[in-house]
Amino acid sequence: MEEPAKSALVRAAMKAPYLAREEEQELAQRWKSRHDQAALHRITVAHMRLVIAMAGRFRGFGLPMSDLVQEGHVGLLEAAARFEPEREVRFSTYATWWIRASMQDYILRNWSIVRGGTSSAQKALFFNLRRLRARLNRDLPTDHPRIELYRRISSTLGVSEEDVALMDSRLSGPDTSLNAPVSDENGASDRMDFLVSDAPLPDEQAEETIDFERRLEWLSDALTALNERELRIIRERRLAEDGATLESLGSRLGISKERVRQIENRALEKLRAALTEAHPEAALEMEGA
User: To 10 degrees, the CA torsion angle through 123, 128, 130, 131?
Assistant: First the structure.
């Protein structure tokens, strides 16, 4: 948003008339029941000064004011979509939470290239750490250990001292590019060169994917050797993410859990036989089943 456009937006917001309670209720009802766009426009225009005022509170995070206002407008529209006029609450009271939440999410996404915490406790830590640190520094002795400061902030916000220390370090220093050069005994290197990953190499990942798809195809072919009840038991006992117990499966099938076990063992033997016949190399993989 260009500076003249931003100034025009602020002037228009400040000139917009306030809505009386009765008029606000009537507009909200029109928007909720008939999706009257004109009613929605009047509600949002009348409350843009609230968005601008809220954006001013977050200027200290160094993000463009125009972006904060735009995010706040998104929150304002979300509030309008969820507002229930029959509760007889002023729209500004309800919308404040949505406007603030939208701006805070934007700040957390864009303040740093390193994503911060998204839990309510982590958000409270991010947005209150500087203020609490300044206040507690005034109350504590000048030579107080930093761990005592972290302990008090931890107790106030309900987060761990480790989280406080980590957030403090993030707020105290700028982001560093992984491509930034560092000096070592072999000459200049990037920070990226010192990162070690335990993940498989790309060719190993591709090989694992191909092997998995091949085994899946083999198993799918072998399952055709089972009858309907055997197939159900194998699917629910061996192929489901949370395998069913013998007792629960027996209850659903109307048989004892011992009978379920017998059918399962028989079905596994049939699978081994089918796999051995079609793909002898796959038989060994069934041994652990």
Answer: 170
